[in-house]
């Protein structure tokens, strides 16, 4: 697959897009980040001449969107009740086109376990895992997980984002505490094989056969700890774009990411996170974000800039792709 370093986006008439709501905030654990993303998108769209207004579903009823005559919606919500298909379903019922993936793809991608099952069926590489239901978390069961996956391993809530509730488990004695932290965010728990190597992320824009990967971003976090704090609130994490990876590695990651995006039925845009195993340079897919961050620290705008797309151009393009399921 050819991936030129620069992209030519189509010309877009901002005023023809109509009255636009930028959904931000919401009720998820990622509310604070969503407000940062949403305000950035709002300012960008307004600067491009779009009639855009902020809309926080935690403070207003979604039915106001229809009543107040909005023509389309830019979803800048993250996490539950924004990225998981629920808001998408409500917008489908109201007939309001929205950015990003539809109901099914959003719901599957929000659940890392379901995502892995789809990728496995498509023979796409993802770390081995153990899923612990709420009824399968006894101390005896937890002791068996390191035997299955090896140490260290990762414990995380399967339906949260932004590295919330994640623990790198170094020994058997850490399992109970890690599971307790994860269950503070989700009744179920995902335990995952730890892949030692480079952490990268790669955005995709478009739909179906037109989906294309943007440049890969390589993430270098302090002590390898890319957590919530280091993602959003420090300047200690380095983001390299161009990634500095060998060209063939970058192309393979882009190929994998587009395949993973299509397998889930994503549209509009998304961003896949991966690890590249140091021992053999094998990339492993971790998750797909269907409503990626758009803050000052966010990686999709950084990758877009490397492809010659400004933040404002990116926001306007994504808004122009707003659609309903079956119409993208």
UniProtKB/TrEMBL annotation:
The protein's name is: D-alanine--D-alanine ligase
Q: Which SUPFAM superfamilies match?
A: Glutathione synthetase ATP-binding domain-like (SSF56059), PreATP-grasp domain (SSF52440)
Give all residue intervals belonging to the ATP-grasp domain: 116-320
- Any single Pfam family the record assigns to this protein: Dala_Dala_lig_C
Q: Where does Mg(2+) 2 bind?
A: 287, 289
Its annotated compartments are: Cytoplasm
Cellular component (GO) terms are: cytosol
Residue positions annotated to bind Mg(2+) 1 are 273, 287
Q: Which residues participate directly in catalysis? A: 30, 162, 298
| GO MF term list | ATP binding; D-alanine-D-alanine ligase activity; metal ion binding
InterPro entries found in the cross-reference section: ATP-grasp, ATP_grasp_subdomain_1, D-Ala_lig_Van_CS, D_ala_D_ala, Dala_Dala_lig_C, Dala_Dala_lig_N, PreATP-grasp_dom_sf
Q: Which residues form a coiled coil?
A: none
Q: In which pathway does it act?
A: Cell wall biogenesis; peptidoglycan biosynthesis
Its source organism is Pseudaquabacterium pictum
Q: Which cofactors must be present for this protein to function?
A: Mn(2+); Mg(2+)
Q: Which UniProt keywords apply?
A: ATP-binding, Cell shape, Cell wall biogenesis/degradation, Cytoplasm, Ligase, Magnesium, Manganese, Metal-binding, Nucleotide-binding, Peptidoglycan synthesis
State its Enzyme Commission number(s).
6.3.2.4
Enzyme's top EC category: ligase
């Amino acid at each position: 697959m050819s991936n030129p370093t620069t992209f030519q986006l189509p010309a877009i008439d901002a005023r023809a897009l109509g009255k636009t709501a930028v959904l931000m905030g919401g009720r998820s654990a990622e509310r604070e980040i969503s407000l940062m993303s949403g305000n950035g998108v709002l300012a960008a769209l307004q600067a491009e001449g779009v009639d855009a207004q902020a809309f926080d579903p935690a403070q207003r009823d979604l039915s106001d969107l229809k009543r107040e005559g909005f023509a389309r919606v830019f979803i800048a919500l993250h996490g539950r009740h924004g990225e998981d298909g629920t808001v998408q379903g409500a917008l489908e019922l109201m007939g309001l086109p929205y950015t990003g993936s539809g109901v099914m793809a959003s719901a599957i991608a929000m659940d890392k376990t379901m995502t892995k099952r789809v990728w496995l069926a498509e023979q796409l590489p993802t770390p081995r895992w153990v899923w612990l239901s709420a009824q399968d978390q006894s101390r005896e069961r937890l002791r068996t997980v390191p035997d299955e996956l090896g140490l260290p391993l990762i414990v995380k809530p399967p339906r949260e984002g932004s590295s919330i509730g994640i623990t790198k488990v170094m020994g058997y004695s850490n399992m109970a505490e890690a599971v307790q932290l994860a269950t503070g965010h989700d009744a179920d728990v995902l335990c995952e094989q730890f892949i030692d190597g480079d952490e990268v992320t790669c955005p995709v824009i478009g739909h179906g056969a037109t989906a294309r990967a943007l440049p890969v971003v390589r993430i270098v976090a302090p002590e390898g700890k890319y957590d919530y704090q280091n993602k959003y609130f420090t300047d200690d994490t380095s983001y390299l774009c161009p990634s500095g990876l060998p060209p063939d590695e970058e192309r393979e990651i882009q190929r994998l990411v587009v395949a993973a995006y299509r397998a889930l039925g994503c549209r509009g845009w998304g961003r896949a996170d991966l690890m590249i195993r140091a021992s053999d340079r094998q990339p492993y897919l971790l998750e797909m974000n269907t409503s990626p961050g758009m803050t000052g620290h966010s990686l999709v705008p950084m990758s877009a800039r490397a492809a010659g797309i400004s933040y404002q151009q990116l926001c306007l393009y994504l808004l122009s792709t707003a659609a309903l399921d079956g119409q993208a």
